[in-house]
Write a structure and sequence with these properties.
It is built from 1 helix and 6 strands; from the N terminus they run ββββββα. With 108 residues, it is mostly beta strands.
Amino acid sequence: MEKQRRFPRLNMAIQMEYAVLDANCNSCKAKIEDISVAGISVKTKELLKKGTYLDVKFYLPKDKTPVEAISKVAWSREIGPNNFETGIEFIKINYADQERIGNLITEE
């Protein structure tokens, strides 16, 4: 049974860059699986522990301006060897970026 979500989500496959705050990872890559105005679900090659803060950057389809946000790992689970699924919550995001995400979701 699928649990209820607070915000509508849109399934999509776009690339994202992230950096773990206060770590030596300059720029890592992940694939966004779905998105909402409150956060994203991504696939990564590394386990990101719950509570880890990230600086994320990605482009919405047909947009030239990136969405950038300070985010926090809400959950993470292994789905295969060196393959993880991670829920990321936006902590600090520009209202205009959040609005662009909301518009994308309602358009679909």
